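Mods, move this if it's the wrong board.
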Amino acid sequence: MNSNCLELTNTDLQEIFKEREKDTHKGTYGYVGIIGGCMEYTGAIKLANMSSTALRAGCGVVRVIVPKSVESSIAPYLLEQTMFSIENDEEQKMKFNKKEIDKAMDKLKSVAIGMGWGKGRANERILEYILQTKEIPCVIDADGLNTLSQMNIDILQKTKCKVILTPHLKEFERLSKIPIEEIQKDSIEITRNFAKKYKVILLLKGSTTIVTDGTTTYLVKRGCPGMATAGSGDVLSGVLVGMLGYHKANVKIAAAGSYLAGMAGELAQKKYTDISMKASDTIEMIPEAIKRIRK
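Not the wrong board. Structure tokens:
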């Protein structure tokens, strides 16, 4: 363990995933939103899995926010989740409309943005509007990161949102404009400097995940080879947005989310093997991971 980095203790995790009071209800644990989807990449099953993950991570209600063009594609995959559709443009992608976005995000305690979202100027305007006007935690992943990398990322320095970025190495290269080879030489210092400069929580995914806000840094060594499969990153984002429905956004909570997702993945690998497991198997094992943390 790097001397400048911290490790989550069992006490930290037990406090974060403690048993709940009897006199609570779904509103106690927060409404969270997941924004994504387009005709080119509907990502219907992934969006459904991500929203299911958020519920497994403990939020009260999940609202999946998609363009109307993919409404019928994703609806069959949603059970406990709710859905809000936004008008689409001529390219069948989400249209920028302040009133609709405000309505879609009403009462949300946190939001994740990017899965199957595609690219385009409208996405940039939507992301910019959310960052500048919504005072909630915002997890940016997948096409959300690709969208951000096409913008002037200095916007992050004056956002109202508490931003959590969850890139893998290639996505972080696009964001930071630093070559992967250079990042790998000093990944802790580079991620720390980036997080401090842009006032974000940065979670750089890898065999050892680095989670930093520029001041405090955690190294999370949970996970397994079986998680090297499509959708594992979406599971992590689902865990994070779900936890942010009822926890304050900070670097420790982000690290705990990474720990929970990694531990659930390890349990899934034991059951299904490193070859056969898929991302939804990790979701299945989240309850067991929480049980083990509580012990």
